User: Fold this.
Amino acid sequence: MSTVDNVPVTTRSFFDQLCGPFFTAFRILGICPYTRNRNGVFSKRTVSASSAYTLFSAAAFGYASFAAIKTLSRQPPPLDMSNFNRILLKLGYATLVAPSAIVPVIMWFETVKLQEYLQEWRQFQDNYNRVIGESDGTFRIAIVKKRVNRIYQSILLFLLITGVAILWSPSTISDVFVLVCTIKSISTMVFITGFWFVGAIVIEATIDGYKKKLQTDLDGQDGLRFSARSIEDYRLLWLQMSRLVHGVGDYMSATVTFCIFHTTVVVVLSVYALAVWGATLVRLRRYEALASALVALACNATSLYVYCDCGYSQTKKCVDNVILLILKLKSSARWTTSNYIQITLFLNAVNQYQPNVNVIGFYEINRGLLGSILSLLLTYLIVLIQLNSSFTTPSTVEDNNNTIMT
Assistant:
């Protein structure tokens, strides 16, 4: 019986190599304290310059976030509004700068799990290269790396445009704390979304390489002469790959949960602002506030889709094709008893251990989650609009008093 190799982690996995630019961005933003040894292996050290920088950054931005929320709360609202809407506006301000203070705290505790996950990838890569072939893995890294670089460059361009727009905005340039916290919050959320997207691309390419190698072996001249050992290697590699995909929701469970919750709140508040104040903002020509709500809605809705669609792509793509290939293998009449048993075990493994992205057993990240979020969004949006209609704005009260006096 073959087993999964427990090799020491001395080199970087291709997952670590491809996601390396995002790890660097996390360290610059002060949200992920880690170091690398001579071989470039990712590791967390509590006593290190990176950890000290992260702690200092977290303390500084914690104070800055509190000061920014106070400054934004004291600003006059863009429109006359009820006390209920003022509370929602303050909630929006707090949501805007919250990631700059909260994400570093969460990532501080989850960096160890991230280190363990990268070690599992290193061990998996050795087995993957042995079964699939190292040349195939190197070729796929080169292809995926070009795509990852384009994504990373697009993120940097987006953040540059966003930073320029924020600098030109008179509502944020007046306060340094608001400016810095806003830029860091947006950068943090965008890089985490990009990291999630790139991770999905790497896993998808890995599963696709697995499927194509199995297809090649099946279509070859000796495709129907697999040994029991070869079939078992494919089965064990599938189990290890499924565990890696499942672990995506575990190693950053709190961070991903916070990001999904944060983007959902921003989408709800943005839609509410456009529904309640959109016409008024257009009439008063307050295009800056209107554009801010539209951009926040578009960007956060896109982030929600990326989270849920990437989970779907990791769990569903290639699985059906692999099952069909195994059934094609099983339909052959040339198998010995040992080979037939291994094929049956292989089929059961693929059916029972599909690569589902599960967040520590609480929920799965897939397209179904997006439907649940949209349902929740509509529900709370209706509730907020109903609550808003039960309050009277100050301008309406003044108009009513003038009517009574006349």
Observations:
- The CA atoms of residues 133 and 335 lie 25 Å apart.
- The longest strand covers residues 35-36.
